[in-house]
Amino acid sequence: MTSPPPERAARAALALWLSLATLVALQALLPFVAGMWGWGLNLLAFAPPRTGWALWAVAALALAPLHARLIAGAIERVGSALGGRMWILGLVCALGAALLAWRLPDVVHYTGDFLLRQGAIEQSVPATELFPQALPLDVALHYHLPRWLIQHGARGAADAARLIGAVEAAALAWLAVAFGRTLGLRGVAAVAGAALVFFGGWLGLMTGYGKAFSEEVVLALAIAGFGVRAAERGEALLPLGACLALALALHRSGLAFLPAGALALALGMRVRGAQAGRRPDALLALALPVAALALVGPRIFGTLAGFDLTHHLSSPAVRGAGGVLGAAFAPDHLLDLVNLAALLSPLALAIPLLLLAGGRSLAGGRAGAVMIALAVPQLVMMLFVHPTRGVFQDWDVFAPAGITLATLAALLVGRTLEAAASWRWLGASVALDAAAYALLWLVHSNDLDRGLTRVAAAALGPPPRSEAERGISWEFLGTRYHEFGHPRESAEAMARVAALTPSARILMEWGLAEARRGDYETARRAFEGAVERDPTQARLWMNLLQADIRLGDLAAAERAALQIRRLIPGNALAERTLAEIQRRRAQRGRK
Fewer beta carbons within 10 Å, N or C terminal of the chain? Predict the structure, then answer.
């Protein structure tokens, strides 16, 4: 294992401690700063106070050498007791991870297209209609498998997704334990490395969100671990090739793993020598990703050239922000990316400082080359991909990027602790800090009211978000508030959407929200705006008619009913309304 000189390692360890202290301080201070400038680190503002500050206190106290040394000593003793039976630790961690993901489900459902995917399963809407760009394996895992689980005992789409996520969390924990050993780390340094690649914001994808990015996270860690074994020892070529093939078959973002995979396979072949290319496992390791590309490559490249180009890479919003380069390096986008990295893997922000303090040897060797080859394509993607709903909501797109940065951070931290013997206690601080912040994220996502409050805070700003992002967030809030019986909040959220994007559909939704809370005058104004924008939709006129009737405005009701009759001859509601109006007029005439 490549190690920095002791004096450079000590400097890197000090830089690591200062980074941890800075992160812990920011986590405590940012909740009291107005706005959402530090949304990646201000979760304490949106978590249950007792739980949130208790988790923060654990991370803060772990920075004290006295406390950290006690914990580190306990870790070393457990490691010594286990000896070579590390599979026991892996099994315990896997079971604990599955339980963690199951017991802390995401109840906010704001991430990405969470509600859309869950609704497709519950309403049996064909996945190909809603997600034409999804690859068959993604559809199988997140549409057909949940429906099968529901048929065999799962209580609904949410529970089915949670079951799948629990299995993925268990796999991630097992791989995390193995990853620390693969890097050649021992004792508390191995625990720190494993904690960094397990405890991250990506765990939020394994608590009920059904999309391929959760599997891509697991595969990213598997590729990192198998890639290091292949590059350094010529082992695990076949598992590496299989993981590359699965990543490509699941989602087009799997292309970003190819540089690291190709490098690791090439180095592994070199380690094995001249006869390596003739061994069946090596041939199959090369053939599997090639076969996957042949099968799904046309779909992938078609989606990249079509859907992704127009929606994520060069959308009207990107062109309006100065084009591809201008949008990539825009200050607000860069700030979002810093927050994104902090949410996914806070210590990843310390990578530049660790490299500066520890020197090139800290990331040297074949393991370092594989980690860098994993992270660089993901960093490029983070710069140039602009999700439709914005980084704040569509952070799931970048979860694989987050864990690749975490693998590099784990390598740097592990080598620092191994080389700086007097600082090994810092491994306990690293592990507890990573665990505390990841658990804080899961606890926040498990609290509906606080989760919705965070969404509203981001929509309100500062910093200001685009009209499209704010509109999507307010519509989400209006829908969720309605689902959970908060008519006033639902109507207020829908009013904000209507002010931003006043389409006929949005104005109708606003009107319905106002009607549900009993404000029929405002509801009528909303429905009038809707029919003005699209007078050909009978359902808009029906809503307007109901509001007119509630307000007792017979003349307006007659106009709406006549319009419905023209659009749908013989409509029962229109005919019944017109008949009632005629009856009332006749009564007035007799008087």
Answer: C
